[in-house]
Specification:
Length: 316
């Protein structure tokens, strides 16, 4: 069956219970943006999650993947990371007989726009994975990256694994999972866990997607975020919109309010409150410095975006 056939593709999250509700908000945004979609929306987990009926009604479903023992046997599970952190690596094996393409998304993704059906059919140039370069390379695409340097990889491409367009057949044919497990057993010292393993195994052999498909700067550079008009915003880093009652952020007030209302309605035990609408804000000096910095670096980053006049095309 060709990749483009209806429901031959999927958008998938992989979460544990405490990240179910951010994933559900993202999944519901996709259902809203793509009402006539030709792909499934899945929330994968290692045990059954309680997805409210209204999400099931728009086609969002939980799928349990019995991979926890495999993850543990591979030595990937640690005391600080749940099995779900590595479950994304098992998705292509699980979906081998069902899907041609899988767009994997972290739970801290916020979909704004974009034709996901078209993205799922993107020509990856024979690569198993399409992804966006990691933040460190947005301004310096040829800069050496710590993990490649540490292990002597003569490449510079290093991608962020929070959004991955996966060709299921090629991923399995190239035994990407087996190579990751083998590489892990040889020892890897990196704070980025499976992202480091993916990069060390693939050694830059990916299709590079436009930054609009995995935009990291929603909190750090809000003005540049508006100018870039990203499709998928990634709340990379420790500070998420649902943390806005704990520490100052630059996230838009409307976004913080949306998460607040969503958590209040569907995840009362996890709901957050703040005395200020729109969350805690940075002081005026910090905001002014940040604005000046954004204006200074925007022309350079705009040149980076212009490499992708069509966001659904890739660099191979």
């Amino acid at each position: 069956m060709p990749i483009g056939d209806p429901l031959r593709n999927a958008v998938a999250f992989a979460v544990e219970e405490k990240m179910l509700f951010p994933a559900l908000l993202a999944a519901s945004r996709i259902a809203e943006i793509c009402p006539r979609r030709d792909f499934d929306i899945l929330i994968a987990s290692t045990s059954t999650l309680n997805v409210p009926a209204e999400f099931k009604a728009v086609g969002i479903r939980n799928i349990v993947i019995d991979a926890e023992k495999d993850i543990r046997d591979a030595g990937l599970k640690t005391g600080i990371l749940p099995a779900a952190s590595y479950l994304r690596l098992w998705l292509p094996r699980q979906f081998a007989a069902r899907y041609g393409r899988v767009l994997y998304l972290d739970a801290d993704i916020y979909p704004l726009a974009g034709d996901l059906s078209r993205l799922l059919q993107t020509d990856l140039g024979g690569h198993a994975i399409g992804a966006v370069l990691d933040l460190a390379q947005w301004m310096q695409p040829d800069a050496a990256v710590h993990d490649h340097q540490r292990y002597g990889n003569p490449v510079t491409r290093y991608f962020n694994s929070g959004v991955m367009l996966i060709d299921v057949s090629l991923y399995n044919q190239q035994d990407v999972l087996g190579r990751i497990v083998a590489r892990h057993r040889r020892g890897v010292d990196s704070p980025f866990h499976d992202q480091a393993l993916l990069n060390l195994v693939l050694k830059g052999e990916i299709a590079v997607l436009s930054p609009v498909w995995n935009w990291h700067w929603a909190n750090h550079f809000p003005l540049m975020t508006r100018l870039a008009r990203p499709h998928l915003v990634h709340f990379a880093g420790r500070t998420k919109p649902w943390h806005a009652h704990k520490r100052p952020t630059r996230y838009p007030a409307a976004l913080i309010e949306e998460y607040s209302r969503f958590f209040d309605e569907y995840a009362a035990p996890l709901a957050f409150k703040t005395e200020r609408r729109g969350g805690l804000r940075e002081d005026w000096n910090d905001r002014t410095w940040n604005l000046v910095h954004q204006m200074r670096i925007w022309p350079q980053h705009r040149r980076n975006l212009r490499q992708f006049p069509d966001p659904s095309r890739v660099l191979c």
